[in-house]
Automatic annotation (TrEMBL), chain B:
<dbReference type="InterPro" id="IPR040079">
    <property type="entry name" value="Glutathione_S-Trfase"/>
</dbReference>
<dbReference type="Pfam" id="PF10568">
    <property type="entry name" value="Tom37"/>
</dbReference>
<dbReference type="GO" id="GO:0007005">
    <property type="term" value="P:mitochondrion organization"/>
</dbReference>
<keyword id="KW-1000">Mitochondrion outer membrane</keyword>
<feature type="region of interest" description="Disordered">
    <location>
        <begin position="256"/>
        <end position="275"/>
    </location>
</feature>
<keyword id="KW-0007">Acetylation</keyword>
<dbReference type="InterPro" id="IPR033468">
    <property type="entry name" value="Metaxin_GST"/>
</dbReference>
<comment type="subunit">
    <text>Interacts with MTX1/metaxin-1. Associates with the mitochondrial contact site and cristae organizing system (MICOS) complex, composed of at least MICOS10/MIC10, CHCHD3/MIC19, CHCHD6/MIC25, APOOL/MIC27, IMMT/MIC60, APOO/MIC23/MIC26 and QIL1/MIC13. This complex was also known under the names MINOS or MitOS complex. The MICOS complex associates with mitochondrial outer membrane proteins SAMM50, MTX1 and MTX2 (together described as components of the mitochondrial outer membrane sorting assembly machinery (SAM) complex) and DNAJC11, mitochondrial inner membrane protein TMEM11 and with HSPA9.</text>
</comment>
<dbReference type="Pfam" id="PF17171">
    <property type="entry name" value="GST_C_6"/>
</dbReference>
<keyword id="KW-0813">Transport</keyword>
<dbReference type="InterPro" id="IPR019564">
    <property type="entry name" value="Sam37/metaxin_N"/>
</dbReference>
<protein>
    <recommendedName>
        <fullName>Metaxin-2</fullName>
    </recommendedName>
</protein>
<feature type="domain" description="Metaxin glutathione S-transferase">
    <location>
        <begin position="187"/>
        <end position="249"/>
    </location>
</feature>
<feature type="domain" description="Mitochondrial outer membrane transport complex Sam37/metaxin N-terminal">
    <location>
        <begin position="41"/>
        <end position="162"/>
    </location>
</feature>
<comment type="function">
    <text>Involved in transport of proteins into the mitochondrion.</text>
</comment>
<keyword id="KW-0472">Membrane</keyword>
<dbReference type="GO" id="GO:0015031">
    <property type="term" value="P:protein transport"/>
</dbReference>
Amino acid sequence: MAAPMELYCWRGDHGLPSVDVDCLTVLAYAKFAGAPLKVHKITNPWRSPTGILPALKTREEGSFSQPSKIIIQLRKQKYNADYDLSAKEGADTLAFVSLLEEKLLPALIYTQWVDAKNYVDATRRWYAENIPFPLNFLLPNRMHGRQLERLRLVRGDPALEPGEQLEKELYQDALECMTLLSQRLGSHKFFFGDSPSSLDAYVFGHLAPILKIKLPNNKLQQHINSLESLRQFCNNILVLYFPSESRELPTRKVSPQAEGGDFDNEPHKRRNQILSVLFAVGAMLGYAVLSGIITIKHTHAQLEEPHIEEEEDEEEEE
Amino acid sequence: MSLAAEAFVSQMAAAEPWPENATLYQPLREHQILLSDCASSLAVQAYLRMCNLPVRVSCRANAEYMSPSGKVPFIHVGNQVVSELGPIVQFTKAKGHSLSDGLDDVQRAEMKAYMELVNNMLLTAELYIQWCDDTTSSEISRPRYSSPYSWPLNHILAYQKQWEVRRKMNAIGWAGKSLEQVYEDVSQCCQALSQRLGTQPYFFNKQPTELDALVFGHLFTILTTRLTSDELSEKIKSYSNLLSFCRRIEQTYFEEQDRDSQSGASHHSKGPSLI
């Protein structure tokens, strides 16, 4: 049809094509609908056309950012994964997407961004390592603040603090939601028949991060591992539509788990250490020579100018 | 409610039967209550009527502040106070009254999903129209919300509420929507509900459930409330099965029961009825 559109997303990791929920949803939908997109996997949201990720850039109509808007735009270009759905199935799609956003998404935001241990050990670390300098000092904290604010507003409680009680409430809703989804999916391959639709894209986008991203405090992951149908569903989609990512998984698994393996993350660390020590020693020596604390004696001048040598000796004592 | 408190309340609730003097609190009907609160309150009243549980409706200016979660309506039963439809449904379930026991797992999943659809789209659209649309906000919402208070408290509270709702809209991504887009979303939501209802009398065939109560609460309130423009109620009127659904529930649960009971307090007199 028209010139290919460009999609900007967060980079992938842990066997996923992207680490962000919205990006995963859009990527999955594009694959299901067979849309030819040029995908840019970046780690700097300021480089996207709208300033946030995901973003779809079209030639004629500008750029769009939210998943619902992006999917509408793809549909307009005749890439529609919901073509075969009946009217009732379309209605069910809207309903289940609302269920995901109201019940599952708050818990997902909490577990990745608000829970203290998870945020510091996993989420902030990943973003700080992957966002280019100097934004990696600025953006993770800002994203953290924004997510906490969003949770506060959605719950209607301006004084919300991360804590055990909030965690229990959110997780209870999320576990119930996952159980409901698993009951609705049953033993089918996709939610509506044999070919995937936009609902499958949304469900995949929300569940895949829970399933794949390893966090210190991972109650959600434990629950989803016990729901065989949902686990099968996510792995199925990964294998069928994102085969290159799932093949990467075994090699990437090693680095996040190596605790004392700092040298794995920075292969030049030893070299950098030696160079910096040498540089420091050279700087100190240079300063000492220039300010006269240490002098280099020229032995061939001793016979001609003995008196100067005495002066130098006096200076040395000072 | 926290989990520990919930378990405790359920235990206490199961112990006692439903008392005669259960009361539902909402803001003042004539001058204060807004569209979204009226819809929520009507949904709870419809649900309790469907369960055949008697409740008195009491209108207070400070209902919002009395509520344990800050949202109206809330019910006062025995010595417990429970607010919002979700917890109230669980509370009545603990007392042994439930409308959704006959549903299988898939149907229960669908029911919960459609309830979230109504909360996510209809309720948010109502809040948007009330507080983010400047005309409605200045002509209807702010004057009504602050009517029980004197100057300068009325201005402060009204603007504070408006600011809070606008920030929430911003956080969930609705701030960039225009009014037409919001009407479009409402239309989509109604289409989905209409599709799901089809030609059945209730959403899950013969018996009403909490989903029916929730949908009735919102649709009926939208249809009978006068706003600055009629576009919202026109969107709903274009789906005839939703109209007859509302009429049916109104006739079955509100008119007949009122003919029996003496007090007219539970009959909503905010606007004309559908018939």
